[in-house]
Amino acid sequence: MNTKEALQLLKEKGYKYTEKREHMIEYFVSENRYRSAKDLLENMEPSYDGISFDTIYRNLHLFVQLDILETTELNGEKQFRLKCAHSHHHHFICKTCGVTKEIHHCPMEQISEELQQFMIEDHKFEIYGFCPACK
Fold first, then answer.
1. I need a surface site. Which of 36, 110, 123, 125 has the fewest CB within 10 A?
2. Which of 82, 102, 121 is the last residue of a domain?
């Protein structure tokens, strides 16, 4: 997803365009990694004097609800990233910088065999470690 597509989705769902929302989306497009609400706030403060943590969180959760962003838990903190174009995917996530690499294998094929009598609704598979730059 790019900035234009995300803003179009907001409009289609009845949410208004604001410069702050565009800035937030552009931040995640340019970062292409998991980032925290604090990271986003620090990025926006020079441009938007007095921007609140509430504004950041409210919009981040709206973007997750609209499938613009996806989330994970990293080092005890919720992290956000632009939603990948592929509907079903998994990631390697660097524990230091949040950089992600898409994993093209899904372990559910093997796991489903072990859980044949169970009804699986959803799953999440992430691998954590350190990228080449951070190791």
1. 110
2. 82
Each residue's pLDDT tens digit, 87-101: 677 888 888 888 888
Q: Are the CB atoms for 75 and 11 separated by under 8 Å?
A: no
Q: Which distant-in-sequence residues (6+ apart) come within 8 Å of 135 by Cβ?
A: 129
Per-residue pLDDT tens over the stretch 19-52: 999 999 999 999 988 999 999 999 999 999 999 9
Count: domains in the chain: 2
Q: Kindly state the average pLDDT of the residues 81-92.
A: 78
Q: Return the residue matching tokens 């997803």.
A: 1
Which residue type, as a one-letter code, is found at position 14?
A: G
DSSP string, 18-33: -HHHHHHHHHHHHH-B
* Within-domain flag for 134: no
Instruction: Identify whether residues 18 and 70 lie together within a single domain.
Output: yes
CA atoms of 18 and 126, how far apart (whole Å)? 33
What are the E-state strand segments in 43-86? 69-74, 77-82
Q: Are residues 60 and 100 in the same domain?
A: no
